[in-house]
Structures are given as structure tokens and as C-alpha cells.
């Protein structure tokens, strides 16, 4: 496995407060509250089914207040048992924000599943970009590196494969979003030895159900889901709509939780990565996959039940 033992100095502080705040004040998840995990196909490792995105939300530059806020979000994420954080050289200062948070919280290397991306079409630029990315995070190596948006994938994917072969990387992947270039992704999935793909999937963007997710299951490829809330558009549109009765069947206390339960209940999905600037939202998102109390129904929907949830969300818009 990758990397150094801890990141920097400091302590794991649970910041922010209300709503979903009260259950998690300790620095580590309690065993009874461990979130739902799913195995990475073809690997002994499993991951919590909710991770943390960083596009836009963590691009806060050097502003100390905003940096502290992101650190608080990360603290709440780890305290709830979260592991995967996803970033990219495309996301402005987000990588450095993650590095700041990991150091401030003195997170143990084994606690975080570090997922980043290679985003270049420069034939010789990959190694330098990965080195800079690692420096921003403050770690020696990543768990997962993905070819961002499959950019120049014919040249960049072998760079990542080479790193994996040398033991400098655990997993390799490719990404897309917004339903783009699924045909190409399907071809690569059937041809190349991929560990992970990353795609957009939510109750309104379901194209991957037809071809991409079945191929992932068939080929033992782990699946990360980006844009679970359509960049926040979906949760904003539902904000004032009453939660449907079906939400109770799965212990969903908010639209966000119902959406996340819909997503992670697909058997091909390994991990969804909602991004947020808010401590209460990260707790709410992690609570969607965590047994908070004995009364809470944490059953996940299956088959027709999943369609009923998608329909209920469509009807509420
Ligand atoms: N091609 C690619 O590789 C690619 C493309 C797109 C995204 N990604 C990755 O996927 C991650 C997620 O996608 P995204 O950031 O585009 O969109 P997203 O996660 O669908 O939406 C983020 C928005 O959702 C809101 N939100 C989060 N939790 C909420 C909750 N519990 N209730 C209400 N609103 C909530 C956030 O607002 P608040 O701040 O107010 O909580 C934020 O504005 C990215 O950050 C990135 O890491 C990768």
C-alpha cells in the first residue's frame, strides 16, 4: 500500500454543527456506525460507498477561513468513516486544499483513499504533473490515478499502467462526466486492464445503466460516481418539495440521502463522491450509508424499488 504514515501535525477536529452534526463528535468512526462498504472488484480492499469530491468546493486558494472550512468538512468526513477523496490538476487549488486538510488533521495515510487524475496531452508531461499533484497532497503515492476525461488516453493510460507495474500506484482508471463519450469508454473498458472508471450517475442521468455499468460488472471494474447531485442543481430543485413516503422505507431523511441511496444501491457502483462546502452536508451524505440508530432502516432499494425512487424524484421536480 501507498505512502507515508501521517500527514503533517495537528488534530482531527469536528467543526461546524447542527442537523446531522450531533452523531459524530469523536475523531474516529465508532464500530457500530461504520458506513456501508463495497469491495473493489478483483481486490481484497473495500471502500465506504460515499467518498468526497473536490471540484469547485475545495478551490479556495489561500483564504484561511475557507481553508479551515474545507478542513472541517474533511474532519467530519473522516470522523464518519469516509475514505475516498477525489481531485484533479484541473480543479484549481483543490489538491493543495486537501493537502492542507490532511496535514492539519494529521490523518493517517491508511485512513484516506487518495484518488487523483492525470490531465495532460503532453507526451512527456505526465510524470511531472503527477509529482506536482503528490506534492500538493503531501503524499508519496496515490491509491488511484485516473486519466481525466480520457484525455490523450492512448498515451497517458500506459504511463499509469507503468507506475502500477512498478508498485508506485495501486489502481488505474479513466473518467468522464455529464454522459459524454460513453461509446469510447465502453471500448476502452472492453480492451484495457482497468481497475476503475468514473462516470456521472443520478436518478435523472441514467444512461450508464444501459451499457457502462453492465460492462463494469462483467469486467470486474470498480465504479466511482461523480455529479450525484448534478453539481447541486438536483438538490436545489428539490429543496422545497416534500419528501415522498418511499424515503421512509430506506431511512432517507432528505432528498440528498434518497438520491445517494438510489445511486449506491446499484450493484455495479463502488463509491459515489458528492462534493460539499458544508459540514452538515458531509455528515448528512455519510449518514445515508451509516446505521445511525437501531430504529433507522438502512435497507437499500432493489430492482423495481429503485425505479420507484427515480419516478418519485422525477414527479417532485
Ligand atoms: N470528469 C471528471 O472526472 C469529473 C467531472 C465532474 C465531477 N467530478 C468529481 O465528482 C465530484 C462530484 O461532482 P460535482 O462536484 O460536480 O457535483 P455534486 O457532488 O453532484 O454536487 C455538488 C453540490 O452539491 C451540494 N450538496 C452536497 N451535499 C449536499 C446535501 N447533503 N444537500 C444539499 N446539497 C448538497 C453542494 O453544495 P453545498 O456546498 O452547499 O453542500 C455542491 O454545490 C467533483 O467534486 C469531482 O471530484 C469528476
From TrEMBL:
Protein name (record): Aldo/keto reductase
Pfam families, per database record: Aldo_ket_red
Cleavable signal peptide: none
Xref: InterPro entries: AKR2_Oxidoreductase, NAD(P)_OxRdtase_dom_sf, NADP_OxRdtase_dom
Native organism: Thalassospira marina
Domain of life: Bacteria
SUPFAM superfamilies per record: NAD(P)-linked oxidoreductase
Residues annotated as domain NADP-dependent oxidoreductase: 50-300
Lineage: Bacteria, Pseudomonadati, Pseudomonadota, Alphaproteobacteria, Rhodospirillales
PANTHER family in alphabetical order: D-THREO-ALDOSE 1-DEHYDROGENASE, NADP-DEPENDENT OXIDOREDUCTASE DOMAIN-CONTAINING PROTEIN
Amino acid at each position: 500500500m501507498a505512502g507515508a504514515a501521517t500527514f503533517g501535525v495537528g488534530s482531527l477536529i469536528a467543526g461546524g454543527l447542527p442537523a446531522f452534526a450531533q452523531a459524530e463528535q469523536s475523531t474516529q468512526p465508532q464500530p457500530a456506525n461504520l458506513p456501508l462498504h463495497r469491495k473493489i472488484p478483483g481486490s481484497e480492499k473495500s471502500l465506504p460507498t460515499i467518498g468526497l469530491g473536490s471540484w469547485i468546493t475545495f478551490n479556495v486558494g489561500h483564504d484561511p477561513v475557507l481553508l479551515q472550512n474545507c478542513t472541517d468538512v474533511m474532519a467530519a468526513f473522516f470522523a464518519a468513516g469516509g475514505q475516498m477523496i477525489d481531485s484533479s490538476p484541473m480543479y484549481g487549488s483543490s489538491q493543495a486544499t486537501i493537502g492542507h486538510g490532511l496535514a492539519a488533521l494529521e490523518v493517517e495515510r491508511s485512513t484516506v483513499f487518495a484518488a487523483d487524475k492525470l490531465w495532460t496531452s503532453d507526451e512527456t508531461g505526465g510524470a511531472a504533473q503527477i509529482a506536482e499533484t503528490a506534492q500538493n497532497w503531501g503524499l508519496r503515492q496515490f491509491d488511484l490515478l485516473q486519466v481525466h476525461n480520457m484525455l490523450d488516453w492512448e498515451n497517458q493510460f500506459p504511463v499509469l499502467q507503468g507506475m502500477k507495474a512498478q508498485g508506485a500506484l495501486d489502481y488505474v482508471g479513466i473518467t468522464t462526466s455529464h454522459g459524454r463519450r460513453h461509446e469510447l469508454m465502453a471500448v476502452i473498458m472492453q480492451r484495457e486492464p482497468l481497475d476503475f472508471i468514473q462516470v456521472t450517475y443520478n436518478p435523472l442521468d441514467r444512461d450508464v445503466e444501459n451499457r457502462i455499468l453492465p460492462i463494469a460488472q462483467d469486467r470486474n471494474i470498480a465504479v466511482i460516481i461523480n455529479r450525484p447531485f448534478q453539481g447541486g442543481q438536483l438538490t436545489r430543485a428539490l429543496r422545497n418539495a416534500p419528501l415522498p413516503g418511499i424515503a421512509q422505507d430506506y431511512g432517507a431523511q432528505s432528498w440528498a440521502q434518497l438520491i445517494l441511496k438510489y445511486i449506491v444501491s446499484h450493484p455495479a457502483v463502488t463509491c459515489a463522491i458528492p462534493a460539499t462546502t458544508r459540514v452538515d452536508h458531509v455528515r448528512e451524505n455519510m449518514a445515508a450509508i451509516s446505521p445511525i440508530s437501531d430504529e433507522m432502516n438502512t435497507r437499500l432499494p432493489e430492482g423495481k424499488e429503485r425505479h420507484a425512487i427515480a419516478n418519485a424524484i422525477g414527479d417532485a421536480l
